[in-house]
Amino acid sequence: MDVLAMGVQRDERPLLEAAFAGRHDIRCLDVSLTAETLPLAAGFEAVSTGVDAVLDAPVLEGLVRGGTRLVTQRSTGYNNIDIAHAERLGMTVARVAAYSPYAVAEFAWTLALALNRRIVRAASRTRDLDFRLDGLLGRDFHGRTAGVVGTGRIGTAFTAVARGFGMRLLGWDITPNPACEELGMQYVELDRLFREADLLTLHIPLAPSTHHLVGARRLAEMKDDAILVNTSRGALIDSAALVDTLREGRLGGVGLDLYEEEAGVFFYDKALEVMTEDVLTRLLAHPRVLIGSHQAYFTVDAVQEIAAATLRNVDDYVAGRITESTLIPRSP
């Protein structure tokens, strides 16, 4: 089968091509699937998309008109896909049910450690031969409280590292995870977790119930010197409320690998353009904010697993199989 993969990063391409070699012909494009790039997908029965694709009703209808019957997304999240409309159109939709949780958990820790010890500021200074310690004072994580919102595979991996640091462990989830409890985690109400955490990290999916979970009220509950890290979904945080909180001089650091209005910005080179997204501009300029490029997942190990899972989704579509990665099965 001919497969079109869109939104493929340069370092991702050889891993995808290696996974599909000898099984299916795959064409990789670095542009993401949107209404503007939709014509590129014409004639491909299977299209693989990145998390930045826009798969709303008009795009899905355009895909069907062009002959696409399978959409296999290279991520666990799929809030960018109008699932109900895809089902009405008779499309098959699949995702990557799981990949290395360590990639994301380790990146969350990378943000937390860099913020706590002011690594970016220090590195910038030393390049200019400025070796002063002014403004670089951090804190021991040992003995302080880690608040983990969402204790699935990624949250559990983050918790294991926090235990290694000797931190007190607080967690919140719909259902407690025995693996985290064995690590010493105490499950508490969300409000208490926000009040007591010195380091708070988000590892939950985006849904109507979690949209802007971290808003003005919960930000006000956090300690003035707490560190907030988000490597899950941008819209979990009310970005405007976050800017207001930082303007008040509160929070010791904010690490973001994503942003709620990142579509059309993240994964692209915007260096020669004028940034019109005011809230993002304010966050980028703040000395206590560190923003990644939606890269937490981006390790060789994780991308290889994602490529292999995408190949399985194509094979399962051809065979008519339903797996844990299937969001909408193939019509009989």
TrEMBL record:
Does the record bear Endoplasmic reticulum in its keywords?
A: no
- Report the Gene3D superfamilies cross-referenced here: NAD(P)-binding Rossmann-like Domain (3.40.50.720)
Could you tell me what this protein is called?
A: 2-hydroxyacid dehydrogenase
Residues forming the D-isomer specific 2-hydroxyacid dehydrogenase catalytic domain are 8-325
What organism does this protein naturally occur in?
Actinacidiphila epipremni
Domain D-isomer specific 2-hydroxyacid dehydrogenase NAD-binding, by residue range, is 110-296
The family database entries (InterPro entries) matched by this protein are listed as: D-isomer_2_OHA_DH_cat_dom, D-isomer_DH_CS, D-isomer_DH_CS1, D-isomer_DH_NAD-bd, D-LDH-like, NAD(P)-bd_dom_sf
Per UniProt, which keywords does this protein have? NAD, Oxidoreductase
